Amino acid sequence: xxxxxxxxxxxxxxxxxxxxxxxxxxxxxxxxxxxxxxxxxxxxxxxxxxxxxxxxxxxxxxxxxxxxxxxxxxxxxxxxxxxxxxxxxxxxxxxxxxxxxxxxxxxxxxxxxxxxxxxxxxxxxxxxxxxxxxxxxxxxxxxxxxxxxxxxxxxxxxxxxxxxxxxxxxxxxxxxxxxxxxxxxxxxxxxxxxxxxxxxxxxxxxxxxxxxxxxxxxxxxxxxxxxxxxxxxxxxxxxxxxxxxxxxxxxxxxxxxxxxxxxxxxxxxxxxxxxxxxxxxxxxxxxxxxxxxxxxxxxxxxxxxxxxxxxxxxxxxxxxxxxxxxxxxxx
Length: 331
Known about the structure:
The structure is a single chain. By secondary structure, the chain is of the alpha/beta class. The protein folds into two domains: 34-115 and 218-265 and 280-330, Periplasmic binding protein-like II (D-Maltodextrin-Binding Protein, domain 2); 117-210, 3-Layer(aba) Sandwich (D-Maltodextrin-Binding Protein, domain 2), CATH 3.40.190.10. It is built from 14 helices and ten strands. The strands form three sheets. It has a five-stranded mixed β-sheet with strand order 7-6-8-5-9, sandwiched between helices. The chain has a three-stranded antiparallel β-sheet with strand order 3-10-4. A two-stranded parallel ribbon has the order 1-2. The N and C termini lie far apart (54 Å). Residues 1-32 have low confidence and may be disordered.
């Protein structure tokens, strides 16, 4: 009886092991077939339109990719998610990616948008007594730490012979900064569209200085280094979709504003103002001129102590031909 039981038990164990092995094999095959691309996006970028229209899914589906989207209020938290591995591709202004590179975040630039300085500014309440940048000395200025808003403040202060240490930086993400600005908790706010347009129209905010002549205010697209090296084929189609979708948006800013107003629940007047000055919809691989321009931003941030070590932008630029060749060699 005991021997019979042992035989039955060992037979059952063998069956269980076989079933488990088959299940594991099936899971592995499924993992190989289901390629996922996690994209982080913001309300101020072309990815918002791409997500709404579903064009990237159509472009990547033939390659076997499934697209998942996560919204972020600004570039810094998006890059934190990328560093943690929960985002594969994202976008932000000039400053966050430089801060990330200085911090050792393993990412590569894959594209950039045209300069769009008109869509960012340092603003003050309509009844503020502040008239110029020099008046910011000792004042509370809100911006997201490590964002393009911080870079704009630092460069604007430099033009007036001041530094970041001459003001009271209030580090807030855009939604919280907007609440602080409206309540009068801060004296000024460095921000971009559509938050910029909303502040102008909703509370009559006044522009103290725009980004024009101070910062190009480009949009940069980037991806996790290991993801891009394993999936270089997604970049060409991603940029093509951004350019196709963005090109249509630039030709019809009013229609784009109406589309986004319905999707976001943001006032049409706010989005019309934002879209009429938005040129950051297309995306192309970085040129030598853009790399040099971004290097100047990085050098300035290092000189101001915003980043603690110098970085070389060219070291973080994606070269698809190298990644494709490396992937072929490894396959």
